[in-house]
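Regression check, NAI case 306:
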Amino acid sequence: MKVTVVGAGAVGASCAEYIAIKNFAEEVVLVDIKEGFAEGKAMDLMQCASLNGFDTKITGVTNDYSKTADSDVAVITSGIPRKPGMTREELISTNAGIVKQVAENLIKNSPNVTIIVVSNPMDTMAYLAHKATSLPKNKIIGMGGALDSARFKYRLAEALGCPASDVDGMVIGGHSDTGMIPLTRLATRNSVPVSKFISNDKLENVKEETKVGGATLTKLLGTSAWYAPGAAVSAMVHAIANDSKKMFPCSCLLDGEYGLKDISIGVPAIIGRNGIEEIVEIELDDAEKAKLNESAEAVRKTNGLL
Ligand code: NAI
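Current build output:
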């Protein structure tokens, strides 16, 4: 398995590091526009190989897409992150041009690649990647829900006073502070609904903390987070490499599923060798359906800025 990661910044490098540590890819190519930056990150990461015991070969290139040829998976993290107080949507004017040009360069060199879009505003960037390439819709996946769900589980575990590994929960909808929908109704602790253990007020608080999970970190860090985003992307790349058919909420181009068309937005999907193997339509209650439609409207509004 050959993986290209475009953008050797905080998220791209974290993603490359997790992929290497899991030791399932033969090769990771880091690409960045900043002269020497990807080369430097790759060298630093390769100097972890003997310490962390991995065989993955990581190389870095400055904008040379010929080195990305025949990648199985490409991750797009190039672009600017938000600063404290900014919304993800405000990044569109800078990131749209970058994501379009990167997606075009990727498919020129790897026509059968599966692309995972990370750059924000992610749902709109995933939609743009569909428009900029002629890849089938299963081959472009937006990463947002996997991260938001991990943050949801973190907040649930904190409220329940139990390990995050005991908790299950999912966030669907747009990857934005107002658009994401933590599905508290379906969240469980060891298969038991979480409502058995905590009050509605506490659950409501968990939901709100989850929605601003990225903004909370941006305020603390002065830029957006990278460890959990990198881990979330590497888990998805691993599912493709191993054809594991693991389910992640992720941004998929919908064609009637959930009553939505011509939009990329977060819904549960089975991920395997073909990218999105199947979009899973779960039964939503009326309030959740209304929230998903509202979230889709907001994503369409951002898509309109392209
Ligand atoms: P960063 O600033 O650390 O790294 C971005 C890198 O992209 C920089 O090294 C820059 O030189 C490079 N770059 C810019 N234009 C390029 C081009 N045309 N070709 C190749 N490389 C280029 O930013 P960070 O923190 O890594 O975030 C990257 C993106 O990921 C941001 O848009 C951020 O908002 C997004 N993000 C998305 C998440 C999600 O859940 N979908 C989570 C966290 C971040």
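Comparison notes: The pocket of NAI is lined by residues 6-12, 31-34, 37, 77-82, 91, 95, 98, 102, 118-120, 122, 143-144, 147, 175, 223-226, 229 (CB under 6 Å). DSSP finds ten helices and 14 strands in the chain. No diff flagged against the previous build.
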